[in-house]
Amino acid sequence: MNTTAKASTGGNTLYGGVTSRRVTVRDLAAAKRRGERWPMLTAYDALTARVFDEAGIPVLLVGDSAANVVYGYDTTVPVTMDELVPLTAAVARSTQRALVVADLPFGSYQGSPQQALEAASRFMKEGRAQAVKLEGGHTVAHQVELLVSAGIPVMGHVGLTPQSVNTLGGYRVQGRGEAAADLLKDAKELERAGAFSLVLECVPSELAAEVTEQLSIPTIGIGAGPSTDAQVLVWQDMAGLSPKVAKFVKAYANLNETLREAASSFADDVVQGAFPEERHSYTA
Asked: Which residue spans traverse the membrane (predicted)?
């Protein structure tokens, strides 16, 4: 058991708790009933996924944000299933406890429920994910219904939906003013359709609190204030590796500077002939 993680949360049973098996959607529902908050991070490779798993993070999201932080795209729109499925498989293979959620990329589920089922099935079979996430409200309710009926747990996502950045007119706060009622309606529709949890991105804190109170499923905030049941960040943002971040990000380290210093030190040693030393070399 990760005793450090468990102690830091006062003995909660989700973060730093159950280690003999993977976290399940039932565990998340139980945490909601207990009023227990929990963390979620993104992960895209085996090494960092293993670190986060050992740290006790109960849910890891292989996000379509890989488009930005792994593949270098300007938005999440271009990333494909062929690019995300191998990342999902790497995360799943290298973890033992975390619930691994795969993001369905743009264009893989919007067309029809059947298209969504085919895409989600691939992430579950090839990527070994335990759940999938998709963006949108009432417009994807039928997709959620079919996936859930087929045995695929679905995490919803409303508010700022990055895959719709071109219609939203940029990365803007959603749900202000009269739009709040529509967002709440979408949230309830996704719950009715069978989603096991819901990401709320870039929405006013007051609205996020209302949605969290009215839903029986856990809410996961990212730029949605402190009242959601869980919080998620892109791990590179959380660790201070990303050069530019949104207002809602808190950096818990400065890996950008750490890696820059390490690379510079390595380069200096090579140029000066200080590396490799004898202890780094083999003899005949």
From this structure: none
